[in-house]
Amino acid sequence: MAFMRYIDLYFKLVAAGIRAQLQYRFAFFMRIVGMLTSYAGTAITMWVMLYQFQELGTWNFYEMLFLFAIAVLSWGFCIILFFHFRSLDTYILNGTFDRFLVRPINPFFHFMAMKFDVASFGQFIFSIFIFIWVSAELQIHWTIANVLFLFAAVIGGVLIQGGLLVIISAFAFWTTKSEQFYWVVMYPARNLTNYPLVIYPKMVQWFMAFVVPFGFVNYFPASVILGKETPYFSENIGYFSPLVGIVFFIIAYYIWMLGLSRYKSTGS
Amino acid sequence: MFNYRLYWTFAKKSFLRSAVYRFDVWSRLGSNVIFLLMWGSIWTVLYAGREEAGGVSFQAMLTYIVVSQFLSGVNGAGTPLWEIQEKVRTGDISLELMRPFDVPLRYLFADFGSVFFYMITALMPLYIILFFFMDLSIPNDPLIWLAFLFAAFIGFLIRYCIEMAFGLLTFFLVETGGVEDIFYFAMSLLSGSVIPLWFFPGWLASFASYLPFQGIYYIPNAIFIGEIAGNQIFTSIGIQLFWVVVTYIFLRLVWKKASQKVVVQGG
Amino acid sequence: MAIIEVEHLMKEFKIAKRETGFLGAMKGLVKREFHTKHAVKDISFTVDKGEMVGYIGPNGAGKSTTIKMLTGILVPSGGTVKVNGIVPYENRQANAKNIGVVFGQRTQLWWDLPTIESFELLKEIYQVSHSRYKENMDTFTEILGLDEFINTPVRQLSLGQRMRADIAASLLHDPPILFLDEPTIGLDVVAKERMRTFIKEINKERDITVILTTHDMEDIEQLCQRMVLIDHGQKVYDGEIAVVKNRFGKIRTLVVDLEQHSTPLTLEKAEVFKEETGRYWIRFNREDISASGVITQITQTHNIKDLTVEEPEIESIISRIYQEGFDGVEQPIPVKSGS
């Protein structure tokens, strides 16, 4: 019952958020252009890098694009749902966070539903374009099972990256900083996963698999679909992506709630 | 008249100010190390055990990346693009127009202060250790060192002029989304910060050679590892000097337009 | 019947020390020291249903910390709080339904949306029934003139309009208790008056208990019968406003700039308490003598170049209470010990 109420409320709050965002149409449009530009930039960098060398380890240009596109797609959904978590510090510092605490609903839910950043069209256009182009080049055979798996892996990726955003925002409860943590933790982590994990030292690979499980966002699932080897890891590890996502997000939620109770005892 | 003491004060103030934000120092250093790890790994795997590729030894290439990351640490310690944009939007910069100093120079000197702080507290210790423990190629000739330091400094000025000019564009554009992404892309790829120009496809390499960005990373890095040597050093630094003049004039033009706009429309 | 009970309320914060100088800055990179700040030391009071209480003190006295503990935003370090029978920090959501909160400087409305949409969202959040929502909206529209700007995005409202919208929003769910934090800050005289009338009216007609923090003496004089005065996290006074007003609120300060003078300035029923190169600060009691009375006295011996009359600020009243105490008037109500 409470659950249904929250679903209903979520849609109402989110619809309000979208209407608010659409008040700034030009900014909205420019953000999409900006995102497309920067993803195209990374893709071009990959192409230039492989112009002389052909392969990065065992990965060729198209395989790397495929890997990259999975990350971009799930990041797109992540932006829609969780991107505003990184600026929790601003809400705390200027006191606007308190308004989430004087209302009779779950503050995590309220904060999450406050914004719904629909400017992720850039990510969707980019990743779908890459999927189509690369599928032809690599002759990926799309079966229903494959598509379902990709879908599940993207959900896993959204939960993992969203979970990290939630944890980063929770830092604001202890340190009054979150935006900066985003740039220290999230930004480098996302950049690392733009390239196949296999190129990094073993310790980094373990870290990206079991501590900050970004390996499950794209590298492990892409390895399953493309049939690439994953040294140090079982070749089927990619199938755990959705599960890892769920577990990681639940942990993130509890860290956030822990931070909130800390906030309530310190005030800032 | 150029008032040395005033600008020196800006540098000193910003040096002391950066000391207060200890988190900034550690966080920048942290992500600098992560990107070093990333590009170091990428180049190690690209070389795939080969001693050399395209006439450049693996050791030289690795040195190129390490030097490049050091320089991007230096360049990244100044006022970032978004902060300039923020200052434009909030009107802070418009207010400074009323003060008796030159605003672009004031920010340059403030950057000197914060960069120096970051260099001595974080970058130098880390990179000295890296050079000590990693098998990198270090120039023996003190003149090469001198040329490198000079080229790196000019590169810093070029980057400053371009970044500040881009930041000031905020005066004219409501939303700079696409523009700043193009800036970041040019900054990372066309400057040769992660891939040296000699590995570029021919047409892209010549395209990049007509742009100012190569002066920021590519030229100092290549001087350091000896890929630019002999008389080439002079021509390369000549190119840099040309670009620093051009970008400086560009910055002044944008600044003049921006200040006119402030005076006429009140920001 | 007490609707708010606060006993021995305490709140401590840890604050990082900032080192100065170059070496201090270097040290700060590695280690930072903390000291404890007692924002609220030991405060007790009760508020009865339907009361309107001014909760007053200088900046940093612990006002908003107390309000945050009453609204469930902060957990106290010691003591107990009960709001309408609920412990706010233990049962925040239930408490939230019982209270309305307005922060004068920060809106609770959706910044980019037409004002009406904020009301509609709050209706959902607080689960206000449709009929009740409509009734309330009709009433508020009538008294506060919401229809002037109901379709305007909140960011385009004037401060006065925004405050009206904010206070209406805080009352949509018929809370028995209303917390107003600086509700008239920054408003012009007309808007302030309108705000006060509305607050008075809902207090009277709906029997809503109001806790009000403000820096504006007028607010308190017009709205509250009782005030709780705090400073440095402690209660300094709790009682009728009339007492404070009689004792301190009637003191005015006249600042005059005088031309070159040979005779010293001597005044009856007024005293010079500060003098600085031709400028005099003169204190008088409005009941003993009028401002023009003082001015007449001065003009007999001196030429006035410029003058202003200053009303007492809360800060100065409090500092005077600290200096002079309530001797001969009334002792501050001692903090209750035990129950």
Feature tags:
heterotrimer, A: mainly alpha, globular, C: 339 residues, Alpha-Beta Plaits, four-stranded antiparallel sheet, 13 strands, transport (chain C), ATP binding (chain C), P-loop_NTPase (chain C), AAA+_ATPase (chain C), ATP-binding cassette domain-containing protein (chain C)
Brief rundown of the structure:
The complex is a heterotrimer of chains A (268), B (267) and C (339). Chain A has 268 residues and is mainly alpha-helical. Chain A is built from 12 helices and 2 strands, in the order ααββαααααααααα.
Anisotropy-based shape of chain A: globular
Give the biggest sheet of chain A.
2 strands, antiparallel
Gap between N and C termini of chain C:
16 Å
Give the distance, in angstroms, between the N- and C-terminal Cα atoms of chain A.
34 Å
Strand order in space, largest sheet of chain C: 5-6-7-3-8-9
Structural class of chain C: alpha/beta
Q: How is the largest sheet of chain A built, in terms of strand order?
A: 1-2
Give the helix/strand class of chain A. Answer: mainly alpha
Average pLDDT of chain A works out at 91
How much β-strand is present in the residues of chain C? 25-35%
Kindly report the oligomeric state of this protein.
Answer: heterotrimer
CATH superfamily of the largest domain in chain C: P-loop containing nucleotide triphosphate hydrolases
Of all protein chain pairs, which has the greatest interface, and how many residues does each chain bring to it?
A-B, 35 and 35 residues
Describe the structure.
- Chain A: The chain crosses the membrane at residues 28-53, 65-85, 118-136, 148-174, 195-217, 237-256.
- Chain A: InterPro entries: ABC-2_transporter-like.
- Chain A has one domain (2-266).
- Chain A is 74% helix and 1% strand.
- Chain A is built from twelve helices and two strands.
- A two-stranded antiparallel sheet of chain A has the order 1-2.
- In chain A, a hairpin with a 2-residue loop joins β1 (55-56) and β2 (59-60).
- Chain A is globular, with a radius of gyration of 19 Å.
- Chain A starts with a helix and ends with a helix.
- With 267 residues, chain B is mainly α.
- Chain B has one domain.
- In chain B, 75% of the residues lie in helices and 1% in strands.
- Chain B has eleven helices and two strands, in the order ααββααααααααα.
- Chain C is of the alpha/beta class.
- Chain C is 35% helix and 29% strand.
- Chain C has helices at residues 21-30, 63-71, 92-98, 115-125, 130-144, 159-171, 189-205, 217-223, 241-249, 291-301, 314-324, and strands spanning 2-16, 34-48, 52-56, 78-83, 99-103, 177-181, 209-213, 226-231, 234-240, 251-258, 270-276, 279-285, 304-310.
- Mean pLDDT of chain C is 84; it is low at 327-339.
- Chains in contact: A-B, A-C, B-C.
